[in-house]
Amino acid sequence: MAAAAAAAVGGPQPPQPELPAPGLALDKAATAAHLKAALSRPDNRAGAEELQALLERVLSAERPLAAAADGEEAAAAGGGGGPGAAEEEALEWCKCLLAGGGGYDEFCAAVRAYDPAALCGLVWTANFVAYRCRTCGISPCMSLCAECFHQGDHTGHDFNMFRSQAGGACDCGDSNVMRESGFCKRHQIKSSSNIPCVPKDLLMMSEFVLPRFIFCLIQYLREGYNEPAADVPSEKDLNKVLQLLEPQISFLEDLTKMGGAMRSVLTQVLTNQQNYKDLTSGLGENACAKKSHEKYLIALKSSGLTYPEDKLVYGLQEPSAGTSTLAVQGFAGATGTLGQLDSSDEEDQDGSQGLGKRKRVKLSSSTKDQSIMDVLKHKSFLEELLFWTIKYEFPQKMVTFLLNMLPDQEYKVAFTKTFVQHYAFIMKTLKKSHESDTMSNRIVHISVQLFSNEELARQVTEECQLLDIMVTVLLYMMESCLIKSELQDEENSLHVVVNCGEALLKNNTYWPLVSDFINILSHQSVAKRFLEDHGLLVTWMNFVSFFQGMNLNKRELNEHVEFESQTYYAAFAAELEACAQPMWGLLSHCKVRETQEYTRNVVRYCLEALQDWFDAINFVDEPAPNQVTFHLPLHRYYAMFLSKAVKCQELDLDSVLPDQEMLMKLMIHPLQIQASLAEIHSNMWVRNGLQIKGQAMTYVQSHFCNSMIDPDIYLLQVCASRLDPDYFISSVFERFKVVDLLTMASQHQNTVLDAEHERSMLEGALTFLVILLSLRLHLGMSDDEILRAEMVAQLCMNDRTHSSLLDLIPENPNPKSGIIPGSYSFESVLSAVADFKAPVFEPGGSMQQGMYTPKAEVWDQEFDPVMVILRTVYRRDVQSAMDRYTAFLKQSGKFPGNPWPPYKKRTPLHPSYKGLMRLLHCKTLHIVLFTLLYKILMDHQNLSEHVLCMVLYLIELGLENSAEEESDEEASVCGPERCHDSWFPGSNLVSNMRHFINYVRVRVPETAPEVKRDSPASTSSDSLSSLHNSGTAQVFSLVAERRKKFQEIINRSSSEANQVVRPKTSNKWSAPGSAPQLTTAILEIKESILSLLIKLHHKLSGKQNSYYPPWLDDIEVLIQPEIPKYNHGDGITAVERILLKAALQSRMNKRIIEEICRKVTPPVPPKKITAAEKKTLDKEERRQKARERQQKLLAEFASRQKSFMETAMDVDSPENDIPMEIATAEPQVSEAVYDCVICGQSGPSSEDRPTGLVVLLQASSVLGQCRDNIEPKKLPITEEEQIYPWDTCAAVHDVRLSLLQRYFKDSSCLLAVSIGWEGGVYVQTCGHTLHIDCHKSYMESLRNDQVLQGFSVDKGEFTCPLCRQFANSVLPCYPGSNVESNLWQRASNKSIQDLIKEVEELQGRPGAFPVSISSETNLSKEMESVMKDIKNTTQKKYRDYSKTPGSPDNDFLFMYSVARTNLELELIHRGGNLCSGGASTAGKRSCLNQLFHVLALHMRLYSIDSEYNPWRKLTQLVEEMNSQQGNEEQQPEVPILYHDVTSLLLIQILMMPQPLRKDHFTCIVKVLFTLLYTQALVALSVKCNEEDRLAWKHMGALKKNACDAEKSYEVLLSFVISELSKGKLYHEEGTQECAMVSPIAWSPESMEKYLQDFCLPFLRITSLLQHHLFGEDLPSCQEEEEFSVLSSCLGLLPTFYQTEHPFISASCLDWPVPAFDIISQWCFEINSFTERHAEQGKALLIQESRWKLPHLLQLPENYNTIFQYYHRKTCSVCTKVPKDPAVCLVCGTFVCLKGLCCKQQSYCECVLHSQNCGAGTGIFLLINASVIIIIRGHRFCLWGSVYLDAHGEEDRDLRRGKPLYICKERYKVLEQQWISHTFDHINKRWGPHYNGL
Q1: What pLDDT does residue 1008 have?
Q2: Cβ contacts of residue 1228 below 8 Å, gap of 6+?
Q3: What is the predicted pLDDT for the residue at 1711?
C-alpha cells in the first residue's frame, strides 16, 4: 500500500497542478498518516528513508527559483503558474507531513496546549506602541507590549508609552530584565510544573521534516545571492529573492508561535551540527547540492572571510588578503598581518594614502585579532541562517523569526554565541550598506534582546571573548576613516583622527555597535573584566585617541569662509556616544573603595595615551594660535576618573597625578577651549560662519555639558590646585589675550587683540576665573546638592515645564547610572525649590502649560549667577535670570534699584583641592585686581560694570577663603617676603589689601598723556617704595613671570635653572613699525586696594564721602557678620560688604579703613569738556528733545485713538466688550451716523454711498447638535458604544419636513418650518463700519499685497482694518433716519381688529419700500451682492429643500431661516433663556437690525399669493368649511396647527414694509400666540390618556359660558378635545401608544407648567426680535417668572393685570375672532387629514420643544482609554489601520487624517466630514498626537491639546508617553469657541489645507 501511495504522489517531478486539489489533499493526508505510522515503529529505518525520498522530491531546490532570481524574463514568462505555485505545493506538503495525516489547524491547537507560557516574547517592529516601566525594569531597555502592561499592575509607577524606533520584544515573564512584581497575570505563574509532558508522536514528524525544510530555505538563499559586480548588492535582486521566500519564512514564524514545545524542536534542528554536516557538506553525488555549496564558499570569500580549512595556507601566503576588509587600503602593512606590528614606532608605510606616519595599533594579541576579523566557520543551520540574514541586510521577516525563537533558553544561548561570532561580519556589511539606517535598527532590534541580559552577557564574555571582539571591531570600523591631525604642528604631526565628514560618522553608522558596547558595559561582571584587562584598556584608549582633537577649527582672519562645514554635530555626537557614554558606563561601576584598582588602571593608560598624543602632535608649551578643537575625550576620561576616585573611592589625589610638566601640558587645551568660547562670543570667529557659534553652544548644552565643559573645568581646577598660582593666573590672561590691557597707563597697544574685542575678552577672562574658583560640581558637592543647584539655575533663567526641566538638567548620560530622570530625588528637590503654576487660560486663546517657578526663598538665598552663566546656551538667558531676580527684589521690597548678581556662599572644598584657593592669594592676581580697580576709577576705556562686578567677586572670594592665622598680623609686615618685588609684601589678600602702592613704572606709547608729566623727585617718595623698585615688573610681569616659572619647572632637574627664556615668535615688543614707540613713564598712584574701594564707593554713589564705616555706629556689625541687608544690592552694597569683611578679617584693615574715611577726599576738579565730550553732550540733548517730540505726537495720536479705544474692541474675548455705537440706539439723533474705519470720515449711510458693517458669514451646524436629553453623549471607546444622531435637533427637523412633504403641497410645506439647523448661516460683526467703496479699494490693495496672508482674498476674506478681526463680507446699513422711531414707538389706541386689517393691507402692498427696487441704486446693488454672499456661505444641499429645484419658495424659506438661525444662536449664547436680560454680549455687537433690512428687502420680491397667506387663516373665519374639501387631486396645504409658529412670525414680519411699527409688531405677536396656545392644548390632549381627556372635556364644558371662558385653559382644552374627537386623532391607541403615555397624574400646576414650557421658546425668540428691531432692553428675571416677564414685555399681558393670584398663561390670550369658532376651524383641517393618516397626523403635531444646549462629546478622564481603542481601529473604507487616525468631537465619527483610501473627488476624509457634520467646521482629536485640529472652511489650525499630564503639560505627538488626563477647563474653552463661532478670531495660526486633511 505504501508503495502505491508513494507512486500516486510520485508522478512528474513538480506535482502536476492539473490534479484536482481536493484529491491531492486526500493523498497527501494519507501519505502523511502512512509515513507517521511507519516512523512510529521501533525499527523505522525504512520509513525514514521513504520520507527522505519524498522530501528530496518535494523540497528539491532544482526548481525555477534560481532562474526567477537571475533572469527576470523567466519569472515574467512563468506568469501566474511560475515558481510560486510549486512553492505553495511544497508548503502544503510540509504542513500535511507535520500534522501526520490530521488537519493542520488541529495539529497547531494540539501543540499549543503544551506551551509553558512563562515568557511573553511578543516581537514587534518599528512604530509599534509599547510601554516601559522604570519602576519594574532592571534593565533600562525593558519593554512590555500593551496587553501585558495593562494586565499587570503599574499604578503609581514611573512608566511611559513609546513608539518603538527599531522594534523590540516584550519582556514580561523574564526576571533577568524586570522585577516579577510587574509581570502580568498570564506570565506570573511559573507554569512549567502543571504543563503535561509532550507525547512523543505529536512532534515526531516535525523532527524529520524541519531539517530538510530549513536546508531547502538555505539553498534558496545561496542560490539567490549573486555577488554584485561593483561593491553594491543590487537590492532589487535581493528583494526579489526575499519576496519569493516570504511564505516559507512566514511558515517558520508561525511554527515559533505555536509555543514552547515546537520551539524546542526548532532549536534542536537549528543547532544540531550533525544534521548540518550531513546535508550541506556538498560531498554527496547530488550535483545540485555541490553547486549550492560552491556558491556558499564564493559568498564567504567575497565577503573577505575565509573558511577555516584554508586558514593555514592563507595566513602564510597572502599577507594582504585581510585588506579587503578595510575600506582604506593604506593600512596594508599595519593591519593585513599583525606580525610586524611590534617593530619601530616610526615605521613608515609608503602608499598609505596621505595618512602620514601611522601610530602603531596596540592590540592585546596579534593572532586573535586576525581571526576576529576574517574567519568564519559555520557548524549549524542557525549559523548559516544568520550569515545569510546579514548578507541580505537583515530582512524584517528573518529578524522576526530569529527573535521569536528567543523564549527558548537553549536557543537564546546558541543564538547569542552565533551573533557574537558574526559580529565583525555584521560591521563590514553595515559599512557597505546603503540602507544603513534600516539595517542599524534591525541589528539593534536583535542585539538589545541578547545583551540586556546580564547572565547571558557574562557567559558570552567568558566563552566567546565578547569584549575583545567588540573593541576590535569598533577600532577597525573607525580605522577606515582616519585622516592626519592638523592640530599644533601640521607638518610633523603623527596623530590621526577620524574624519567627521565621512558617512560613517555623519550618518551615525557606528551607533549599533557603540550602543551594544554601552549595553554590555552596564553589567557589572562584564565591566569588571574590561577594567581588569590591561590589553583591552590600551586598545580602548587607542580608540578614544582617534577622537582626540577631531574637527579642528581654524580661525578665518581675512574673508568669510565660503563653505560652512556642518560636520560639527557629527563630531559632538561621536564623542558623546562613542567615548563619553562608555565612560559613564565604566564610572558607574567605580563607586566603592574596593574598586580603586580599576581607576588606577584607567588613569594609568589614559595618561600614557595623553603622553603619546602630546608627542605625536609635537607639543611643547604653547598652543598653536587661532585654532581650537572642542574634542578632548582623553582629557575628559582622565578628569572623570580622577573625580570619581576622590569622591567615591577615597583615593589620594596626588597618587594618581602626573608630574608638574605633564600638568602644565594638560591644562593648555582645556584652557584654550575656555578662551575660544570667549572669543566666539566676542564675535572674533564671525568669519567662520554660524557653525562655530553652534559648536560653542553644543559644548555647554545640557546633553553634552557634563561630558564636556564640566570635566574640562574640573581638570583645570585640579591643575590650578597643584601648579604655581602665579603661573596659572598669568597663563589665563595670556590665553585670553588681555595681558596688554592690564596696565596702569591710560593707553596701551595690544598686539594680539583688536580694541573692540578687549572688553568682552577681559570680561571672559574674569568670568572664567570666577567660575573656576566658585564651581564645586566635582569639588565636594553631593549628588543631591548638584541636582538642586542645576535645577535652581534652570528655573532662575525661566519658568520651566516639568519635561523641559528633565531635559535641561544634565543627567548622567548612561541610562544605567542609577539616577533616573524623574527619580525620587528629582521630584523631592523640585518640590523644595519651586512652586507649581497650574495652566491658566488667557482669553487670547494662548494656552499656558503647567509651569514651575522658583520659590521666594530660592531667589533670596540660592540664586547663583555663576551656575547660570555656566549653564546658559544663549547669552540672553543670563539677562533673563537677572531681570527675574530684579523683579523679585522689587516685588518683595528687598531692593528697589538695579541689583548686581548676588554673592553666594559655596559648599566647602574637599580637602584634596584646597590648593585651588592659592590662586586667590597670589601676587599676580592681586596686581591684576589692583590695576583694574585703578583703571575703573580713572575711567579708562574698555572697562565695564561687568568687569568691576567680577573684580569685586574675586576680592570677596579671596576674603572668604583667606588663611585663618592672618588675624593679628602686625608683625608679619617685616617678613622676608617683603622685598620680593615692589608690588605687594606678601601673598595674602587680606594684608595686601591695605598695602599702599605709590609709584608704578609703565611702558606707554609716546603719545600717551602720562609721558608729558615730570616725574616727581624721588625724595618725596616713602622709604617703603624707593623709586627704582616701584613696579617696573608691572607690564611684563604676567608674561615674563609665566615664562620664568615654566622654565623653572622644566629645568628643575638640570643645572641650567637660569637658562634664558627661549625666544617666542610672539615677542611682545616687536610692535608693527607704524605704531608709536613705547617709552617708560612713571605714574604716581598712592593708593591701596582699600582706598580704591572706598573711592569707588564714592564714585558709584555719586556723592563725596559717601562711605562711613558701619561699625563706628554699631559695633554689633563686627560680631554677627551675616547681615541680610548686604545680601542683595548693587555695586555700592558689594563694596560695603567687602569692606566690612576686610575689617572683620584684620584689625589693621579696620584701622586703615577708618583712617582713609577721615581724610576728607578733596573735591574732584571739574573736568574740562573736550570737543569729543561736547559732541556726546549735544547728542544727549538732541535725543532728549526728540523724545519729548515723540511723546507729544504719541499723546495726540492717543487722543485720536481714544474714541476707538473706549469702545475697546477686544477681539480676543467676545465676553466683555463695550458696544460699538450702532445707529439704532440713539433715537434723539436725526439720522444714524457711521464712522468709516478706512477713510476716517463719519456721516450717514446714503443710497449712493452706503456704509456697511464688517461681518463674518459662516455656515454653522451648532444648532443641529442640540439634543433633547440631558444625559451628555460620550465619545465611544468600545465597539458597543455607538452614537446615533437620530435624537439631534437637525435630524428631528429633517424628518418632520420630509413627512410634511409627503402629504402636503410643497410650497406650503416650505412655509411651515424653518431650515438652517444644519448649515445655517450665522452672521457676526466686530461692530466697525466702512464705506463700501472704501472697502472695495481696500480689498484691491490686499489682492496686490504679496505678503502671505492667513486668508484668501479671492474668497472675499479680509481682516477688519481697525481691529484685525477676520471677516468676509460687508452688510450694508439701511439709510434710515431715526426720527420716525418716535412715531412708530408711540402706543396707539387702535383696536386689534383694525391693526389686523392694516397688517394685511401692508403685506399685500408689493415693494412698499422707501427705496424703489426699480431704480438701481448703489445700496440695492450692495444688498443684492451681500445676499449672494449669504447664499454662497452654505452648501447647496442646506438651501434646497423643495421638490421642484430652483423654486422661489426655496429662497423664501432660506431667507427667513437665516433670521431664525441668528436669533436661535444668540439665544444659545445667552445660555438658552433670557433670564439675565440686558443687552447681551452678542446684542452689543449684533448686526441683526441690518440683516433684517437686507432679508426683508429680498423677501418682498416674493410676495405670497394672498390666497395662501397664513395670516388670513389666523384672523378670519372661513365661511363654508366643506367647500374647502373640493376633491381636487392636488395635495392639500399644511394645516395651520402643523405650522411652526416662530417661522410664521418671521415670515409675517419680513413681509411687512420696513421700518415696522411697534403696534403692528405687537398685533402679529398676539395673533400668533393664540395659535401657539392652541397647539399647546392639542399636544397636551394627545399626551394624556382617555380617562383624563373625558374628565377634562366635562370639566371645561361646565365653565364654557363664564365671561372669561376664552381665557381659561380648562375651557379651551375641553373644547379642543371635543373638536378633535370628531376625527381619528385619538383613535387606535393600540398597545404601543400606552407605553408612551406618561403615567403622571396631571394636576392643574403641572398642566400650567407644560403649557408655559411649550410657549416659552417662541416668547424668547420674539422678545429678542423685539429687542433688536426696536432697541428695547430686555428685563432680567428669575427662571420661574420668565414667562410672565416676557409676555408683559411683549405686550401680551393687559396692563391692568393683577399679579396677586398665581399667574395663568391663558390670561395672555387676545383672540381676534371668537375663540371657539377659529379653534374648530383649525381642528377641522387636522381631522380631515387624520381620516386617512392617523399615525402621521399624531406624529406631526408639534411637540413641546425641550432642546438642551449643544455640547461636544464627553471625553474620558484618561487619554489612554481613547488611545488604546482608536489607534488600532481599522478604517471603515480600506480596513487597514490608518496612519493618522482622528475622531470628530462633535459626533464621534472615526476618520483618517490625510488618508488617501478615503479620498472622494480630491477631498480627504476630515475635510469632507467637516462639511457634512459641521457645514465646514470640524473639530478633530488626532489620536496619535493627542492634539485637536480645527478645520474651518478652507483653513485649518492646530488648536492645542485638552489632555495634560500630571504636571499640566501637553504631550504633542505623545513623545513623552506619560499618562494624560482631561483638562476640563481647556475643554470648556474649546466648546465655548465652537458654540460662539469664534475659532477664527481667537486662534491666530491658520493655514490652508488644500482639502488634504
Answers
A1: 62
A2: 1378
A3: 86
Alpha helices in 1516-1557 (DSSP H): 1521-1524, 1541-1550
Number of H helices, E strands in the chain: 76, 28
**Cα angle 824-829-834, degrees, rounded to a multiple of 5:** 130
Scanning the structure block, which residue is given the C-alpha cell 524546542? 264
Is residue 379 within 8 A of residue 273, CB to CB? The reply is yes
Q: Looking at 447-461, 775-789, 1335-1349, 1405-1419, which range is the least confident one?
A: 1405-1419
Residues forming a β-bridge with 1292: none
The stretches of 283-435 forming alpha helices (DSSP H) are: 287-302, 311-317, 366-374, 381-391, 396-404, 409-421, 423-432
- 3 state DSSP class of 638: helix
Q: Which carries the bigger pLDDT value, residue 1380 or residue 1842? A: 1842
With beta carbons less than 8 A apart as the criterion, state whether 1745 and 1805 touch: no
How far from 1184 is each of 1179, 1187, 1191, 1197, 1594, CA to CA, in Å? 9, 5, 11, 20, 95
User: N- to C-terminal Cα distance for the chain?
Assistant: 67
Q: Among residues 1336, 1512, 1304, 1503, which one has the least CA distance to residue 1413?
A: 1503
1281 — phi, psi (to 5°)?
-75, 115
Question: By the 8 A CB rule, do 412 and 119 touch?
Answer: no
pLDDT digits (tens, 9 = 90+) for 50-87: 777 777 776 664 444 433 333 333 333 333 334 456 67
Q: Reduce the DSSP state of residue 1170 to 3 states and report it.
A: coil
Question: Rounded distance, CA 789 to CA 794, Å?
Answer: 9
What is the C-alpha radius of gyration for the chain, rounded to an integer number of angstroms? 47
Cβ contacts of residue 1266 below 8 Å, gap of 6+?
1288, 1289, 1468, 1747, 1748, 1749, 1750
pLDDT tens by residue, 746-794: 888 888 888 889 999 999 999 999 999 999 999 989 888 999 999 999 9
Q: Which helix (H) or strand (E) holds 1242?
A: strand 1242-1243
* Strand duo 1078-1087 + 997-1005: pairing: antiparallel
Name the grid cell of 315: 595566513
State pTM to two decimals.
Answer: 0.82
Q: How far apart are CA 1845 and CA 113, in angstroms?
A: 43
Looking at residue 1200, its pLDDT comes to: 57
**Please, are residues 1413 and 1407 in contact by the beta-carbon 8 Å criterion?**
yes
Characterize the bridge pairing of strands 168-169 and 496-498: unpaired
Q: Higher confidence at residue 627 or residue 752?
A: 627
Helix (H) or strand (E) holding 1243: strand 1242-1243
Tell me how far apart the alpha carbons of residues 569 and 571 are, in angstroms, rounded to a whole number.
5
Upstream peptide bond of 1555 is cis (omega within 30 degrees of 0) = yes
Three-state secondary structure readout of 911-929: HHHHHHHHHHHCHHHHHHH
Q: Taking 80 as the threshold, does the pLDDT of residue 975 lie above it? A: no
pLDDT reported for residue 1418: 83
Beta strands in 45-203 (DSSP E): 123-124, 129-133, 144-145, 159-163, 168-169
Assign 1331 to helix, strand or coil.
strand
The three-state secondary structure class of 1078 is strand
Cell 608630574, residue located: 659
Mean pLDDT of the chain: 79
Q: What is the pLDDT of residue 35?
A: 74
Which pairs from 1346-1350 meet CB under 8 Å and 24+ separation? Answer: 1350/1835, 1350/1885, 1350/1886, 1350/1887
How many Cα neighbours within 13 Å face the side chain of 691?
21
* The one-letter amino acid at 1749: L
**d(Cα 841, Cα 846) in Å, to the nearest integer?**
7
Three cell numbers at 272? 544540531
Cell of residue 1785, nine digits: 468631537
Q: Mention every residue, 6+ apart, whose C-beta is less than 8 A from residue 313.
A: none
